[in-house]
Prior knowledge:
Elements: E1 3-10, H1 15-28, E2 32-39, E3 47-55, E4 68-73, H2 76-81, E5 86-95, H3 102-105, H4 113-122, E6 126-128, H5 130-137, H6 143-154, H7 162-169, H8 175-196
Parallel strand pairs: 1-4, 4-5, 5-6
Antiparallel strand pairs: 1-3, 2-3
Helix pairs in contact: 1-6, 5-6, 5-8, 6-8, 7-8
Amino acid sequence: MTKSILLVGVGGQGTILASKLLTTGLMEAGYDVKMSEIHGMSQRGGSVSSQVRYGNEVYSPVIEVGGADILVSFEKMEALRWLNYLKPEGKIISNNYRMDSMPVLTGKAEYKEKEIEEELKRLDATMLNAADEAVKLGNAKVMNIILLGALVKSMKLEDINWEKIIKDNVKEKFVDINIKALKHGMELVSKEALATN
């Protein structure tokens, strides 16, 4: 059975690196994996999405509307923008983080923060303050790896050797902090699950 993961964010948030680590881990675990990326404008402010599909045999990298098992949003407005891609029973993990996109910065769109948060609450999204947690760990840039850890835990992919994947794909001086961030993301989802049960 094929599983579909949609990762979305704004350029500069590390969405693509998280997707590449995820894809590498799944391939090393023996899954057939297909990944596609869409960079609206992948520099800061542009919408970025990455689609990862895995299973015994995957024919297409593209997730159809209503086809994603899980939507991982690195920025909360992006979660709602991509919502139509989620299955009715699909899960949402959203970073409780605001990063204005180009339309907001240029005044073409309005950022309705309160409405976004209310809608995500109504949808029973798992909200994580990954940016704050990354700062607590000592490096704001590992926000993406915290979200990857949350995804790994949510999809029950903990048995993959993620430490090896990080060691093989991240600059040596950042390996330890990235491993810490991944584990921390997994713990945050466990705490969130306990809080809601």
